[in-house]
């Protein structure tokens, strides 16, 4: 039996589902090979609950400033990841008013 497309799996999985399952979101820029890990609960504080295949288009690489090479992988951490995996955490959300 053929393997299912990974992006089809992500289209049915939402941020709230990943947060409830205790998973991490690993977002990789395939252009400059920069990988960052996020907790889904942190992203839910400033984004609506959306499917993960649509979420990857909202990120931009900090190193090369590109948006079209981003790839999302859902990772369930295990004991070997303890102390080695760097997870970015949300400290606070600031609202800035700019006159137009």
From TrEMBL:
Keywords: DNA-directed RNA polymerase, Transcription. The keyword Transcription applies. The keyword Transcription applies. GO terms for cellular component: DNA-directed RNA polymerase complex. This is DNA-directed RNA polymerase subunit RPC12/RpoP. It comes from Rhizobium mongolense. The lineage of its organism: Bacteria, Pseudomonadati, Pseudomonadota, Alphaproteobacteria, Hyphomicrobiales.
């Amino acid at each position: 039996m053929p393997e299912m497309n990974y992006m089809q799996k992500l289209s049915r999985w939402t941020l709230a589902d990943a947060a409830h399952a205790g998973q991490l979101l690993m977002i990789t820029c395939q252009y400059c090979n920069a990988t960052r890990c996020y907790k889904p609960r942190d992203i839910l504080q400033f984004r609506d609950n959306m499917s993960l295949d649509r979420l990857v288009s909202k990120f931009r690489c900090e190193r090369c400033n590109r948006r079209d090479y981003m790839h999302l992988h859902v990772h369930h951490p295990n004991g070997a990841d303890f102390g080695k995996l760097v997870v970015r955490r949300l400290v606070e959300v600031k609202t800035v008013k700019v006159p137009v």
